[in-house]
Design a protein that fits this description.
single chain, alpha/beta, two-stranded parallel ribbon, 8 helices, globular
């Protein structure tokens, strides 16, 4: 896509993997450097996309909101929708911006609610904690990535695949609201989300806002360490549906 800037999930949008999870939140200063090299300026509109189901793009959306930059959106349908529309693409990769050409965004971390393991455990009992992984991983039938199979006790399953249609585009607000209501989510109950490493759960946070269940003023919380952190801490797990 002409003019697009590549940012890497593992090395630029996350801190090194460890006890904090496979994709811990990046150091704020490091994130600010990455965003400035990408040309993000205070008050500028940012559009994020990926080549998949929008989950990594949602991570960018969430990180910018967490950093205090509200002018950010996710491209519906991602790169596949762009190509399907016959819009121009390029193989040229823009050079990182430096000096006066770089962005001037200031990262102000903490503008989106984040849960640690204890807070996630409490929310699963006192509110609604959504597990964004596939049902087979939630139930504990299989676990291809992390050392334990199952889910956080009390969490409800809300796979990210359920908020996009067969064409790869996001469902409408009414459809998303109906889906979440069927899972047991309502606007009068505190809600949070987790996944394997805190990436795909970002799209659940976005979907809840699109559905009107949460809002920019009162967003859903993200358990950033997610299942990878939960396993590293050797916390209790539940299995089954």
């Amino acid at each position: 896509m002409p003019g697009a800037v590549y940012v890497d999930l593992d090395t630029e949008l996350s801190a090194p993997a460890g006890v904090g999870g496979r994709h811990p939140l990046p150091d704020p200063e490091r994130l600010q450097e990455v965003l400035r090299r990408a040309g993000v300026r205070e008050g500028s509109q940012v559009v994020a996309y990926d080549a998949g189901d929008g989950s990594v793009a949602a991570r960018v959306w969430w990180l910018l909101r967490w950093a205090g930059h509200d002018e950010v959106a996710v491209l519906d349908g991602g790169f596949a929708a762009w190509e399907a529309a016959g819009l121009p693409v390029t193989a040229e990769e823009p050079a990182p911006l430096t000096g006066d050409a770089a962005g001037d965004v200031v990262v102000r971390p903490g503008q989106m609610p984040v849960l640690d393991a204890d807070e996630a455990a409490a929310l699963a009992q006192e509110g609604v904690l959504l597990d964004a992984r596939a049902a087979v991983r939630y139930r504990g039938d299989t676990e291809p990535v992390d050392p334990k199979a199952g889910h956080i006790p009390g969490a409800l399953n809300a796979p990210t695949t359920g908020h996009v249609g067969a064409d790869g585009r996001w469902l409408g607000a009414a459809e998303l609201a109906e889906r979440f209501a069927g899972i047991g989510v309502s606007s009068d109950v505190a809600v949070g989300a987790y996944c394997g490493s805190g990436v795909t759960a970002s799209s659940v946070v976005l979907a809840l806002e699109v559905a009107g269940i949460t809002s920019a003023e009162k967003p859903a919380a993200l358990y950033a360490g997610s299942w990878s952190n939960w396993c590293a801490l050797d916390r209790e797990v539940a299995t089954g549906g």
